[in-house]
Amino acid sequence: SSLPKAAAGCPDAEVVFARGREEPPGVGAVGDALVNSLRGKTRMSIGVYGVNYPANITTGTGANDMSAHVQSMARDCPNTRMVLGGYSLGAEVADLVTGGRPLFGFTNVLPPGVDQHVAAVALFGNGTRGLSPAFAGKTIDQCAPGDPICGRGTNWPSHLQPSYIDSGLVDQAASFVAGKL
């Protein structure tokens, strides 16, 4: 076959997710909910990669890691459809990667054409709005009512993970993503 050797171990799709501030390593509560919901909406195999960054106040290291992972997947698993995502601070990480400009310590900009390997982008509680045109049609940007980070509200609990998970916003995003895969 003409497929790269790595293709045998490659998932059909992979969720590359940056957790929110102060969440323990992994994809965080919102990322877990997104992956679980997505697995229920498609027969495709879904891999998961939790962006490796401190999740404190900085986004550059996370964006560099997310970009490096996307580039390695595009090279080693060219048929895997990637889903980039993030919650809160993690959404800002994904914004940097999809924005295509070096900012805030982000230096590992995606090379031309790598965006073609990204099927969808799912953002939750996103404090920035820096979407690149290349990703505009494949991005869902969820903001819970009252969330002061992404909206005009003043209700801090509406920014927290349960607000996104319990309201159906994560499930809605998973439906959007499944439609792009």
Strand order of the largest sheet: 2-1-3-4-5
Structure classification: alpha/beta
Number of continuous helical runs: 5
- Poorly predicted ranges (pLDDT <50, ≥5 residues)? 1-5
The gross shape turns out to be: globular
Mean pLDDT: 92
Largest sheet: 5 strands, parallel
Report the end-to-end length measured between terminal Cα atoms: 24 Å
Description:
- The chain is an alpha/beta fold and 181 residues long.
- 32% of the residues lie in helices and 16% in strands.
- The protein has a five-stranded parallel sheet, with helices on both faces.
- The radius of gyration is 15 Å and the shape is globular.
- Mean pLDDT is 92; it is low at 1-5.
List the helices and strands and how they pair.
Blueprint: E1 13-18, H1 28-39, E2 46-50, H2 60-76, E3 81-87, H3 89-99, E4 118-124, E5 139-142, H4 161-166, H5 169-180
Helix pairs in contact: 1-5, 2-3
What descriptive keywords fit this protein?
about 180 residues; alpha/beta; five-stranded parallel beta sheet; 5 helices; about 30% helix; globular; disordered N terminus
Condensed summary:
The chain has helices at residues 28-39, 60-76, 89-99, 161-166, 169-180, and strands spanning 13-18, 46-50, 81-87, 118-124, 139-142.
